[in-house]
Every structure is written in C-alpha cells, then in structure tokens.
C-alpha cells in the first residue's frame, strides 16, 4: 500500500451490491489526480477476495450486502491482513443503523453516508488513507446511545494516566492532534505521544477503535455535547 506522501495515487476498492452506487463512486474518486479505483465487488466475499489480491489503500465498504456482509468482510480482512490491511470506511444509508456501530467495533476506520456530497467523500478517503480520524462526534454519540452497552468505565480509567484520559475524551469529541494540543496547551509532539500510549494501552488499531472502546467500556458516555 502507499504510505502518506507517496507519489502514486491512492488505490481504492469499492464494495457495494448496487452497480449505480459503485458507478457514482468511481466517477467521483476517479476524477481525482491522487486517486485510482483499482477494483470493485458486489458482495462481502468478493470484497475480501479483491482486497487480498489488489492490496488497496482504502476500501469503501457497504455494510449491507448479500451473503457475507460488510461487517464480516471487515473482520475477515483485519484478521487475515493485520497491520497490512487497508483502511476500511463503511458506507451506509442510515447513520443510526446498528450495523454501522458493529462495523466500527469490527475495525472500520469510520463511516460515510451514501448521501454525502462529493467533496465530503473525497476528503474522507484522503483522511482515512493517511490514518486520520474519520468520526463525526454527534453521530457517534447517537450510535453509542443506541447500541453501546451500559457499563462503568473504571477499568479503562485505571489503565490511563490523567493526561491520557483527557486526550481520549478529546479524541471522542473528534478533535485532531493539533486541536487537542491547543486545548491542553501542550506541544503537538506531546499529544502524539499520549495518543500512541492510549492506542497501545487499549490495544486499539487506530483512533476510531480507541473511541469505540471508550464508549463500549463506559469511560465516555453518549450524553449531549
């Protein structure tokens, strides 16, 4: 896969059972100088095979597909490819669908609504490819309020330092490292170190998984704000 700053275009696979959706996505992404749609799939099983063969940077994965759905396909790819797995962004019609929360729990880097504007789609693919957070705080709170179990967060809190706990809460608000640094009045390098420590202690693959764990454990609660 291409890393951040690579000169070659971002390689993208589209997985959706609707041909019209794949065609629209291909038209939007293929028009970007820094992107190339290298493969398509109409089912989760096809998506797993195509991704294994082509090793893209990003997969746009529909959550609802016949047979193997997008959630199971995400799980299979992460189990099989580990750190070599592409960034998987689930694409959905309904943002409060329990399938979206399940996909995030399975390891998806974030989600997009099918009605998203072209510019939002392009920006999301770039963010995902470069390992940045692709979460919408209000939508994630809404998902968590419906689908995350009601638990207390003492166990997770005990594993984090005070600074790390503060960083995790700000991550759950959707803040970038630069925004967290500004909020905490510390340097960007310090925040980066705290984020790395949080991911390691939570066993999280990325920021999205850390935030999901924070909600699942009850460390962060899906209240207003």
Structure description:
- α3 (70-81) packs parallel to α4 (98-106) and α10 (188-202) packs across α11.
- The chain is globular.
- It is an alpha/beta fold.
- The longest helix is centred in the last third of the chain and has 15 residues, at 188-202.
- It has 2 domains: 10-134, Response regulator (Rossmann fold, 3-Layer(aba) Sandwich), CATH 3.40.50; 150-217, Winged helix-like DNA-binding domain superfamily/Winged helix DNA-binding domain (Arc Repressor Mutant, subunit A, Orthogonal Bundle).
- It is 52% helix and 12% strand.
- A 5-stranded parallel beta sheet has the order 2-1-3-4-5, with helices on both faces.
- It starts with 9 loop residues before the first strand and ends in an 8-residue tail after the last helix.
- The protein has 11 helices and 5 strands.
Notable characteristics:
single chain, Arc Repressor Mutant, subunit A, 225 residues, Rossmann fold, alpha/beta, five-stranded parallel β-sheet
The main sheet orders its strands as: 2-1-3-4-5
CATH arch. level architecture of the largest domain: 3-Layer(aba) Sandwich
Using only C-alpha atoms, the radius of gyration works out to 17 Å
Low-confidence stretches: none
Element string (H = helix, E = strand) = EHEHEHEHEHHHHHHH
Q: What is the makeup of the main sheet?
A: 5 strands, parallel
Number of strands: 5
> What fraction of the residues are assigned to beta strands by DSSP?
5-15%
Separation, N- and C-terminal Cα atoms: 37 Å
Modified residues (4-aspartylphosphate): 62
Keywords: DNA-binding, Phosphoprotein, Transcription, Transcription regulation
Domain Response regulatory: 11-129
Protein name: Response regulator transcription factor
